[in-house]
Specification:
Two copies of one chain form a homodimer. By secondary structure, chain A is of the alpha+beta class. Helix content of chain A is 37%, strand content 30%.
Chain lengths: 153, 153
DNA sequence: TTTGAAATAAGCATTCG
DNA sequence: CGAATGCTTATTTCAAA
């Protein structure tokens, strides 16, 4: 596994806030030369320490008015039905995140929809009419207190 | 509010996968000139349709071995205690996401820690020893089925 | 006013010491 | 590793629609 030194960590901390900083700006911040920073970035991307570089689009601007957290319980059953549910969630645009978890329910979903009618349609299609599914609890998000994709370094 | 046309949506769809595509590559994909793409990107960033541009760092590479979903119930009480809890979560590096929600509990957290000992320490500090807090349920993530920060367009 | 093409500036990536 | 440099890409300008 790739070993990160303090320079790498400092760079990653900056880049997960803003990956459009120039290598020169980064160099300034972490006290390295531009070329040293350049070399490290290439390496971090090649080694997949940086998994991706993405634009974060405003949900509101994209027409997302409602975000819900949905807890899902499946019927006891084969690992096949679990895999099927996973595949369905992966292919669903409204589902931003899906976690398979231990505890009192099986999956947690973060779901983006335009409005409640859209959520209703989503849940009817993917949750209510799903035979594998025992029940689900919907929690409407009132405040996105913190939504970062950052990892502690 | 900013109105997105089909070109904007196409660009955003590409950029939320990869924001390091050159304006030329984007132009090719969406059938616009390089300068037209350039102008649109500037506008989308100025208008905060693109909220941020970030590097996604591999949790594993950063030493995150455990991700948990934590459901939190606070004691009945003032909006003051809610605000206090929100502020605490915002300032906590282990907490990647925090949602204030309707339903059977008040908050949902996505928490990144190195290992279970680290999670234990986190929960002791921020959850167990918190007087506002009635109880919490921890769900350990077994499979990150889908973790995208993309919004449907 | 908006568009694309060309010129200019800026930033990236490589080579070398 | 840092300094210097050629090469790529972004940004601005400008002429035309």
């Amino acid at each position: 596994m790739f070993q990160l030194d303090d320079y790498d960590k400092a760079l990653l901390r900056l880049l997960q806030q803003n990956n459009r900083l120039t290598t020169e700006q980064l160099a300034e911040e972490v006290n390295l030369s531009q070329s040293a920073v350049q070399r490290r970035l290439t390496k971090l991307r090649n080694e997949k320490v940086i998994e991706a570089d993405v634009a974060i689009v405003s949900p509101l601007a994209a027409g997302v008015g409602i975000t819900c957290v949905v807890d899902v319980v499946l019927h006891e059953g084969s690992s096949k039905s679990i895999d099927k549910f996973k595949a369905a969630m992966k292919n669903c645009a409204e589902v931003a995140q899906c976690y398979y978890v231990t505890g009192t329910y099986d999956f947690v979903l973060i779901v983006h929809t335009r409005d409640m009618a859209h959520f209703e349609a989503f849940s009817k299609k993917h949750l209510m009419d799903n035979q594998n599914l025992k029940h689900f609890y919907t929690h409407v998000v009132m405040d996105k207190v913190k939504v970062s994709y950052n990892v502690p370094l």
